[in-house]
């Protein structure tokens, strides 16, 4: 639902905290819709702000721009988000199985080697836990 407010590309970029180039790219891909003024300026509705936030959120979840475009076309991105969460859950299960296969090898390592592995995994898993916190607010 538009409130009738329209933004030029620079204003939209500032509000959404993305570059003008990004907005231009998304517009060319069909992810954002712009209206043209008589003087050929592009104007974006207030929905463009939410769309940009949605796109950036999806990108953090490693959803491709083509998939994002499909999500935006369905007009119900929440349903597709649940599908994406299921895909991620399946990937986590696969990773757990792969790690379980490494237990016999890891048990033969010395404490220094084990600590190095834990540090390496912690570096990658901490951002995952931070992201998961958003689900539990």
Characterise this structure.
This protein folds into two domains: 6-74, Multidrug-efflux Transporter Regulator, Chain: A, Domain 2; 77-136. The chain is 69% helix and 7% strand. It has helices at 9-16, 20-29, 47-60, 65-74, 77-107, 111-132; strands spanning 6-8, 35-36, 42-45. A hairpin with a 5-residue loop joins β2 and β3 (42-45). α1 (9-16) packs across α2.
Task: Please describe the structure with a list of short key phrases separated by commas or semicolons.
about 140 residues, mainly alpha, Multidrug-efflux Transporter Regulator, Chain: A, Domain 2, 2 domains, 3 strands, about 70% helix
**How many helical stretches?**
6
Mean pLDDT: 84
Q: Total domains, how many? A: 2
Tell me the distance between the termini.
Answer: 27 Å
**What is the architecture of the largest domain at the second tier of CATH?**
Orthogonal Bundle
Biggest β-sheet strands, sense, barrel: 3 strands, antiparallel
CATH topology term of the largest domain: Multidrug-efflux Transporter Regulator, Chain: A, Domain 2
Helix content: 55-70%
Strand arrangement within the widest β-sheet reads 1-3-2
Counted beta strands: 3
Extract low-pLDDT stretches. Answer: none
Strand content: 5-15%
* Bulk shape: elongated
């Amino acid at each position: 639902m538009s409130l009738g407010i329209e933004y030029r590309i620079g204003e939209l970029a500032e509000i959404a905290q993305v570059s003008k180039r990004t907005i231009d790219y998304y517009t060319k891909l069909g992810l954002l819709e712009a209206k043209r003024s008589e003087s050929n300026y592009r104007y974006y509705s207030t929905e463009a702000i939410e769309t940009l936030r949605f796109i950036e959120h999806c990108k953090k979840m490693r959803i491709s721009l083509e998939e994002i475009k499909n999500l935006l076309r369905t007009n119900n991105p929440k349903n597709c988000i649940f599908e994406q969460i299921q895909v991620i859950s399946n990937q986590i299960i696969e990773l757990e199985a792969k790690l379980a296969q490494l237990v016999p090898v890891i048990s033969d390592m010395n404490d220094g080697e084990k600590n190095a592995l834990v540090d390496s995994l912690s570096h990658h898993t901490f951002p995952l836990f931070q992201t998961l916190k958003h689900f539990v607010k």
